[in-house]
Amino acid sequence: MALPPALSSDELTTALRGLHPDWHISADGKLHRSLVFPDFSAAFGCMTEIAIHAEKLNHHPEWSNTYNRVEIDLITHDVPAITQYDVDLAARIDAAAGRAD
């Protein structure tokens, strides 16, 4: 299976417009978003939903959880760059986070 191409700067700009405004490109070149929930259970519940989507897409986030905060970084490691895979997972993360609000 062919790897997806890295998104160009213009493609990244367009992709970011379609995602939650908290997404940005971090200093290390990853698509990043911080999520804050009312409590640990809400954060973990959202992570569980995201994990199911990630597994179905076979594309997994770099993430961490501390109490009510979830830090998420997306990058396609095999490329290594941000690809459409990352944008697609980010959109699903946005949907899951919206349901958890």
Unreliable spans: none
Question: In percent terms, what proportion of residues is strand?
Answer: 15-25%
Shape: globular
Q: Would you report the number of β strands?
A: 4
Q: Helical residue percent?
A: 40-55%
Structure description:
Helices cover 44% and strands 19% of the residues. The protein contains three helices and four strands; from the N terminus they run αββαββα. The protein has helices at residues 9-17, 40-57, 84-100; strands at 24-25, 31-36, 62-66, 69-74. A four-stranded antiparallel beta sheet has the order 1-2-4-3, with helices on one face. 25% of the residues are buried. The mean pLDDT is 95.
Task: Write the SSE topology.
Elements: H1 9-17, E1 24-25, E2 31-36, H2 40-57, E3 62-66, E4 69-74, H3 84-100
Antiparallel strand pairs: 1-2, 2-4, 3-4
Helix pairs in contact: 2-3
